[in-house]
Design a protein that fits this description.
single chain; 510 residues; alpha/beta; Leucine Aminopeptidase, subunit E, domain 1; Aminopeptidase; nine-stranded mixed sheet; 16 helices; elongated; binds ligand BES; binds manganese (II) ion; binds zinc ion
Amino acid sequence: MLWTDWSLKWTTEGPSSRSSQQPADIVIVLADRQAVDGDRQILNSTLDQALKERVRRGVYDGKPGQTAMFSTLGLQPEPYAIYVGCDAAPYSLKALRDAAGSVGAALLEYRIRKAAFVLPAGFTQSLAEQDISAASQALMEGLLLGLYRRNSRALKGRAQAELSEIEFVLETEDARREWEQGLLRGYLAANAACYARELTNEPANLLTPERLAEEARSLAMRYGLDCRIYDENEAAQEGMGGLLAVGQGSANPPRMIVIHHRGNPESSETLGLIGKGVTFDTGGISIKKAAGMEEMISDMGGAAAIMGVMRAVGESKPALNVVAVIPAAENMPSGNAFKPGDVIRTYSGKSVEVLNTDAEGRIVLADGLETALRQGATKLIDVATLTGAVMHALGDVTTGAFTNEETMLDGFLKSARRAGEYVWPLPTYPEYRSMLKSDVADVKNHGGAWAGAIAGALFVHAFAQDRPWIHLDIGGTAWMWSDRGFESKGGTGVMVRSLLEYIQSEAEEG
Ligand code: BES
Ligand code: MN
Ligand code: ZN
């Protein structure tokens, strides 16, 4: 598989049992504004003095994103110490995740194998939400997400972080169970998100639809999930005309990927997760401009998110039914490519007038939603790098959300908030539907100059058969052009953690 687990060992220690341990390579402490201004010891009086010297010079003030790294020169059992800025207490989950995330670069640079995270006295009382398991999950997620860098395994060999052990030094032994539960959840979630990043970062010559399908098959094998792959012939037999049209211009044929997790056989509900898997989007005959086109290796970011989710689902086996569907195709211009003006028949039977071959995502999703419904999905969430227009609305900060069922979306937004991923609703009022009216087919795939993200969403909605449905447009958030916090340049794995939170809350509701 494309991403081997971190194979990280983590432990929790009470403050006293610590001395018996093999010292770590680095000790990590939170040093927010309050800690820096106050006169309580943070780590060690001499090192604290050195930190305050930096504060006097104005190079450190405990703000989020700041770190101060020191060689401890015998003052500590660990050779290095790092102070990390943070939004001051009460600590929100986001503040903790961000703080832990900013340590990542140092762990990489100093080739840290074992880290010790020392929590401040009174930590539990300083949590904004008094939820230790959520707080420890956030710390673990931040650390691991901050540690990830794009580094194509195929081209450079695997040289990810060397971290193999983290010790969390707790103020008391009281809540160890909650700590352990949170750390495990954080580990699974971060591992899943890094897998999604790795898939997204893989260049399109290496990750073709066929390779993506092989990857899905080995993922399913590894966790004992049911997997069915439709190759181009089977897709043709089934009548998946949307997937085939988008893929027909490429020498790399399309695939329809289906993975089942049947975690609650008693239930009649199945959550369908559909991820846009365009392994490269040139725009086809409606070709894109050259500058920046390489970003379109990330046009399978939705598929990557779903693969990441299924990895964590495979590992934790939550008590609900999930069917994951990935329509995978490469959108190329060629003598065989589909063309503007073509009228195609999708898997659902609905016909589509193609006005722009660069609006291909919604066409493969149409067949993806239909596949999910035929496989028993009773509600749907699709994740797709669907439009550039969503970036005009929300930039590269926030994922756009669309729905036909406000209560379902409310539940999802709550999950996203816990995960610390920004998601914001955009409207789907019926008046917008006139954008997609076609003279010659049931719908057209391009709605004109305005409200492009909504047009894309409403096109997809036409294939949801009025089941509860959420569409997540990650066109602005699946890929970063430069590092931002714990998101490094390249694929972000966005929506993996929100979806996992959602799945967890759905499974708990039963
Ligand atoms: N994959 C793109 C959307 C995209 C563009 C995501 C840039 C991230 C960065 C999608 O297939 C596309 O090309 N959409 C078009 C639709 C238009 C032709 C209606 C767009 O948004 O420009
Ligand atoms: Mn496109
Ligand atoms: Zn696309």
